[in-house]
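Data availability (excerpt). The following record was deposited with the supplementary files.
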Amino acid sequence: MERKNSSSSSSRLILTNIICFCILLLVLCFIGSVDAYENYTVGDSLGWYDKLENPNVDYQQWVAHKSFSLGDFLIFNTDNNHSIIRTYNFSTYKACDYSGDDITEWSATDPSATTVIPVTIAIPLVKEGMTYFFSGDYDGEQCKHGQRFKVNVTHGQGLPPSLRETDSSSSPAPANPDADNPESAPDTTVSSNFDHPKNSTDSSEGDDDGGDGDAKKQSGCSSVSGGIISAILVLFGLSSIL
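Predicted structure:
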């Protein structure tokens, strides 16, 4: 009888450990589903400026230890005297060349050294591989004085539906850009003017995109968690028998 009780206690202990492990998996699943996409504020509180204006900016340091994926947004806080140029061509980036046809530029229609207007613009990451950003204002001098950086964009969750639409009026890039061709850059209709109405809603759109990713990830977690919960109920039933 004593040996039987010992065996029963050992079985219950094993089942208890299995149940605790399943619960831990369930918790980790939901924790991992919180953020599918990210919004990154470029330079954090320092914003998007060159070293002549703000000697403390260091965009290489800002990029370090961050992971960027398709569907993430970069939020640029700057002013009308600094532009944002995106390219997928390293030579263009290295030369701070803002005159080529392989760039997309976001800039003020009328830069002014006397009338400085704060500007915030959100730009989605829509192509896998290296993406380069720099400022082309003042004949590339801002770029040469530290206002540039590059990011390596991974596939991650993939592009959310809002960035995969084929309608050029609402889609900044095709669904499947050619990541293997470094000369290839997706066509874009993202606003190239700070005054465009789209700029005022880009941040919220970034949040919405994140929501799409959350929904996808949570959907996957729901099916997994359903199986885990069923397993836990079965184990509880076995535990009550022992």
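Summary of structural features: The first strand starts at residue 39 and ends at 41.
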